[in-house]
Each structure stands twice: as structure tokens, then as C-alpha cells.
Amino acid sequence: MFTNLEHLGLAVNDLEAATALYTTLLGQEPYKREHVASESVDTVFFQVGGSKIELLAGTSPDSAITKYLAKKPEGIHHVAFEVDDIRAEMARLRSEGFILLNEEPKRGADNKLVCFVHPKSAAGVLVELCQSV
Ligand SMILES: CC[C@H](C(=O)O)C(=O)SCCNC(=O)CCNC(=O)[C@H](O)C(C)(C)COP(=O)(O)OP(=O)(O)OC[C@H]1O[C@@H](n2cnc3c(N)ncnc32)[C@H](O)[C@@H]1OP(=O)(O)O
Ligand SMILES: [Co+2]
């Protein structure tokens, strides 16, 4: 079951500049900074009420974020939903014909197991499923 809009992922070219901007915009400091080696991304998290903002910068040419920013401007990169059972939701979405971008859940940032749904399956939006671990 999808239980919450967990975070909006924003792709940024300059993580320090974006972090300073969002610290001023939101009026608060980030609660976490985390490198996710499997995705070659550095992330910065802000908690805003029940939702989060995840700033993401690529750390290598093969990072999905680096590739994205080579073609598109900074902005909303993905929307992440919290699910109570990521494997069950992956099986359900597959049975409904959604294209998933990973066979198995993988370790994401912020103590989550994650998987991604191809934007082509989700009306042009990259969707991330997150389950707390
Ligand atoms: C996991 C750590 C952290 C967390 O929260 O825990 C993260 O969120 S990490 C986030 C970064 N990682 C990922 O995004 C992994 C999943 N993404 C991918 O596998 C690729 O980025 C993919 C498949 C979405 C796109 O791959 P690629 O860039 O090689 O393909 P194209 O550029 O040819 O794009 C194909 C098609 O999709 C459109 N597209 C690409 N990215 C996005 C996007 N973020 N939102 C919406 N649409 C997107 C692109 O425009 C192409 O469409 P077309 O009509 O053919 O132009
Ligand atoms: Co994310």
C-alpha cells in the first residue's frame, strides 16, 4: 500500500549553493547529508512537516542525476512514495504493466529500500517507492 508522499527529489548542479538556498527558503537547516555510492549521488535532506525535500547532485558521469542534468534544467527529478511492503507493491505494479527500473529493491538514502518506476509508465514522472528499513 502507498502510505505517504515521502519526498520530492530535486536535481541540482551545485549542491552547496542549492543547500544554502533551501536553508534560507525553508527557514531551517537540513537534517541529513548522505552520499549514495550505488547511485553516485550526494544528497541533502530537509524535513518539511510530514514531507521531505531531497536535493541531489551527481558525483560521477554515469550518475543518473549527471545524465539528467546534461539534458534538462535543474528542478523536480522524481517523486517518492512511502510504501508498507515494497516487494508486494513491485509485484502489483508489474502485474499492472508498469515498467520497473530495478529487479529487486535496493538500498537508497535515508535508511530506505527503494525502487523506481520508469517515467514512461507514470505519465512522464519518475516515481520512487521507498520502504523504511
Ligand atoms: C536511491 C537514492 C536516492 C533516494 O531517494 O534514496 C535517489 O532518489 S537516487 C535518484 C537518482 N537515481 C535514479 O533516478 C535511478 C532511476 N533512474 C534511471 O534509471 C534513469 O534516470 C531513467 C531510466 C529514468 C532515464 O535514463 P536515461 O537518462 O539514460 O534515459 P533518457 O535520458 O533516454 O530518458 C528516457 C526518457 O525518460 C525521460 N526521463 C529521464 N529522466 C526523467 C525524469 N527524472 N523524469 C521524467 N522523465 C525523465 C526522458 O526525457 C526520456 O523521455 P523522451 O520522451 O524519450 O525524451
Ligand atoms: Co529519492
UniProtKB/TrEMBL annotation:
Highest taxon listed in the record's lineage: Bacteria
Keywords: Metal-binding
The VOC domain, residue ranges: 4-132
Pfam families: Glyoxalase_4 (PF13669)
BP-aspect Gene Ontology terms: L-methylmalonyl-CoA metabolic process
Listed SUPFAM superfamilies: Glyoxalase/Bleomycin resistance protein/Dihydroxybiphenyl dioxygenase
UniProt-listed InterPro entries: Glyas_Bleomycin-R_OHBP_Dase (IPR029068), MeMalonyl-CoA_epimerase (IPR017515), MMCE/EMCE_epimerase (IPR051785), VOC_core (IPR037523)
Keyword Metal-binding carried by entry: yes
Gene Ontology terms for molecular function: metal ion binding; methylmalonyl-CoA epimerase activity
CDD domains reported for this sequence: MMCE (cd07249)
NCBIfam families named in the record: metmalonyl_epim
Homology family: Belongs to the methylmalonyl-CoA epimerase family.
Name the UniProt record assigns to this protein: Methylmalonyl-CoA epimerase
Species lineage: Bacteria, Pseudomonadati, Bacteroidota, Cytophagia, Cytophagales
Gene behind the chain: mce
